[in-house]
Amino acid sequence: MLNQNPVWRYFLVLGMLLLALVYALPNLYPEDPALNISATRGGSVDDATRARLEQSFIDANIAAKSVVLENGQVLARFNSTEDQLQAREVANQLLGINFITALNLAPATPDWLSAIGASPMKLGLDLRGGVHFLMAVDMKAALDKNVNDMVQTFRADLREDKIRYRSVQPDLANSRVIVSLRTAEDVAAAEAALKARDRELVFSQGSDDLTLLVGISEIRLKEIREYALEQNITIIRNRVNEIGVAEPLVQRQGADRIVVQLPGVQDTAQAKEILGATASLEFRLVDEEGDLAAALEGRVPPNAELYYTRDGRPLLLEKRIMLTGEHITGANSAFDEYSRPQVSIKLDAKGGNMLSAATRDAIGRRMASVFIEYKPGTEIGADGNPILIKQQEVINDATIQARLGRDFRITGINSPGEAQNLATLLRAGALIAPIQIIEERTIGPSLGKENIELGVTAIQWGMVAVLVFMVIYYKAFGVVANLALVANLVLIVGVMSMIPGATLTLPGMAGIVLTVGMAVDANVLIFERIREELAEGRSVQQAIHQGYDRAFATIADSNITTLLVALILFGIGTGPVKGFAVTLAIGILTSIFTAVVGTRLVVNLIWGGRRVQSLPI
């Protein structure tokens, strides 16, 4: 008998719908206004901090839904944004500058749903509210850093090959190195030695016959710029994730721009704190033979530089950089065998080799960790942006106990909180080149809420219009199509909630509205085909069977072409365009499933496999 399905197929489809429904349920629970409190350098977050915060909220008559310690951060939930804002003022007064108090929106998903990994859809900035930054990478600083690294490398290489030189100095204005040698033979030997180690160096004659100008090829310059941009994107994303901002967007824009969006964060100033300083890290040896007193009077040795620790203590450090933070792959705070705080650090292979070579003859000497921060100054550069000012401080100095490799530890840290913060900074990474914010804007939660309400209203009215039309025009079969439409919407929401990288934006809601209209298009094709088969005199069972089979090719053709357009939009689009493409693509796939598979099961269940004289279509 035609139009009969095995029982397992009904259970399979029903199971898929129930799964989608379960994962769509978290979207029914609105997010709570919340505070996300974490520590900066010099502070620590523990259960005592949580208890102090909770008591301070009670004393200020602020009703907090919960105040919990999660992953080294305090998350406080409130009933309203008014309580949230008042609580932030209380927290700032209580904790001071060593903590970051960020406004956020926390999911209110029940525990039983969270236990199975169900979570609400990720909302874009236009729906959830938050802050948007456009950041510029200082490519000149990246090139300067590369030139300074070349200076150190050339000195080491020439000493290793026993080639005498007068000086090796950087020419930052032209992104090259000036090598002054003693004889013409030394010039030839130096060029041959350096060229053998790096074929992409460009050599030219200097102002005299004993000077070499060593530059970088255009290919290498492009690689340096690309590396600086991509590494900064990765590091900024790591920093945001370390702080705990939910679903951030960090992506490239153009040749030297980075877009950062932090949904749910409402305070631009606090968001800048969350991003952290545009900073880098360097490890240098302490110059214990230099005259510190003379350096303080301005007579700094030629191979050293004067630095200060956070508490104002002066330190004389060697100019030679042993290691930069870009080679750090992991860092964790712990305690040593004497229960003193320490930070365990893991390096990549290149960094391990560099540190091993640098510390081979430095056992017993002190190594300092230098934190370098770039802040916008008052002067404006040629590009119209403020010129960045370099600020440096020593965050830690400790004695090297043994030759270091890929794994080593930093000791001499004052407190566990300081160790945890240093580990967080190292784990998040050091920026390859300084960045500065050239554009910022804030989207308030009220605007995001209004966008959601308008989008939901549009979806509701669109569904009502389609539902009414289908019932009037196709009668009982219209009811079946309407059931498929509701199931399609549940599937879209469920799939969007299950996909980790999917984000719903305002254009994405427009894609759902469009899908609502397109979802019944396949049913219209099928139902019209069934009508044609009945008009040609075929039996009811033959008409249903032929209607679905012959309409499928047309349905597939029309939807595949639309799906290809959605994939192209996703591939070349950014931000809102991608949001529209995601919901459109998911909607196309779910509508084909519900229209072709879902409605056929229902039709076969009601009218299939039995003697029926007519159809209510």
UniProtKB/TrEMBL annotation:
Record domain Protein export membrane protein SecD/SecF C-terminal: where: 435-596
Location in or out of the cell: Cell membrane
Residues of the Protein translocase subunit SecDF P1 domain: 229-288
Signal sequence range: none
Topology of the protein relative to the lipid bilayer: Multi-pass membrane protein
Function: Part of the Sec protein translocase complex. Interacts with the SecYEG preprotein conducting channel. SecDF uses the proton motive force (PMF) to complete protein translocation after the ATP-dependent function of SecA.
NCBIfam families per UniProt: 2A0604s01, secD
Protein name, entry field: Protein translocase subunit SecD
Species of origin: Rheinheimera nanhaiensis E407-8
Source species taxonomy: Bacteria, Pseudomonadati, Pseudomonadota, Gammaproteobacteria, Chromatiales
